[in-house]
Amino acid sequence: MDKPIKLTRQMKILGVILDDRLNGLAHLDYLKVKTGKILNRLTVARSRKGLSGRVLKILYKRALERIIVYAAPAWWAGSVNQRNKIITLQRQVLLAVTEAFRTTSTAALHVLSGIEPVDQVCDMETEIYKAKQGQQISTFLGRDIEPISLDAYVDQWQHPAEISDVRMDPFPSSSSLAIYTDGSKMNNRVGAAFCVLEPELSSEYLYRLADHNTVFQAELTALHQALLWKKQQRPRDLCNIFTDSLSSLKAIQKLRPRNNLVEKIKDLCDETVSLQWGQGPHRHCRE
């Protein structure tokens, strides 16, 4: 109990160096040493094994860049000192990829290598994190971002027993009621649609979405509207719902999708609904 408490000016938490000034410079010094060791090994491998600049670029994008921008929202502030340090760090990689003279300007190295400035990548990672957390974003890379164009998530607590476990059925159920959904984006115009077959085409519904919506959001909207129609018109009938969006089905299968629209879809899915993945019959929705 008589041991003195050791004071330190910096500490490492989950791979991030936090210093007493909280300016991120200590973490950048740590990254310079860490990435320098890896880059030295890659340079040796290039001279001995004949690795091309294209391979080094892939290794940088897949490994080194991810190491550099790891947890950027926690330490990146975009200050002048941070930008100078991180660009200097990246410059060594650009020289190795391009094999250019050391007197070549950094801007020219970015153009020759096709690698974007890492400080802008940190800006992007930080702004994406803010968007996911529902924080205010005014501009990014000189472009104004409207709050309405951000897909914000409102976390609503649910008891684990109330969370629906939705599965994609491998084969359609023996039901004469089928709904085909589709979402698309053409000429910067986004729309969703679904059509009902029982067994012939009986009705179809079209929805216009905002231009900034994605195809993924359009596919989810089509599924959501189809399930709402089914709940209102055929609540007790078995129904096969077909979609060509495998990403939507995978999102619905997640236990906690962190998407309010997906959660609404999960709540509407019951034992009478059979979700199917298919690419053919839904063309009737467009005709």
From TrEMBL:
Residues 173-287 form the RNase H type-1 domain. One of its GO terms (molecular function) is RNA-DNA hybrid ribonuclease activity. It comes from the Eukaryota. InterPro entries: RNaseH-like_sf, RNaseH_domain, RNaseH_sf. It holds the Pfam family RNase_H. This is RNase H type-1 domain-containing protein. It comes from Araneus ventricosus (Orbweaver spider).
